[in-house]
Amino acid sequence: MKRLRPLLAASIIAISLTQAPPEGKAQWVVFDPNNYVQNVLTAARELQQINNQITSLQNQAQMLINQAKNLASLPYSSLQQLEQSIQRTQHLLSQAQRIAYDVQQIDRAFSTNYAPASASMSNGLLVANAQTRWQNAVAGLQDTMRVQATVVGNLDTNRTQMSALVTASQGASGALQASQAGNQLLALQAQQLADLTATMAAQGRAQALEAAQRASGQDQGREQLRRFLTQGQGYQSTTVQMFH
User: Fold this and answer.
1) pLDDT tens, position by position, 99-139
2) What is residue 72's DSSP assignment?
3) Angle 154-155-157 from CA coordinates, rounded to 5°
4) CA-based torsion, 201, 183, 165, 78: positive or negative
């Protein structure tokens, strides 16, 4: 309002001068300063309202732009690569040789090839079981090395994906993009944990097969020793009877 007062005074003076009657005429134009001031004030208030409306529209437009950014999807996705890595590891686990990751198959093996040696078993069966156990242990070690090789091969892919996701997260334009980048980083972490679990499972399987082989070998060795001693005693008894 203070800025409008000098302007109003100048306007009144200018209008007074322009409204002076020409020479020879006695007509005068009546000028109402109060009315003029009210008109100017009304125009100023309307102008201020228009400015307020423009500012409000600008704010709404900016809000819509921000909402569009928050709803924009992340242009980069690593889910396909992560799924392929997990599938490779799962495929190797499903290809486990001889004794696989199956409870029923494990129970059958330990009731036959790994069963305690008994007097009813022939020497040929004992030898065959020992050979089967050795083959199972070797296959378990080979499967472990294959899984480890696959996991190591996934490391380079994981490094590339992590770098791309971190870059995408840092350059996210809205909340949705940042959230999607974070979710994909969590998926990458889950894939790495899956590889670690697969490696530990394969290594544990190989160690279990090797330990079972040693235990069964010791049991078979005791049975063979018992048979040898029994046969030796029978041979000595037969020899003594022959000399008598």
Assistant:
1) 888 889 889 988 888 888 888 888 889 889 999 999 999 99
2) P
3) 65
4) positive
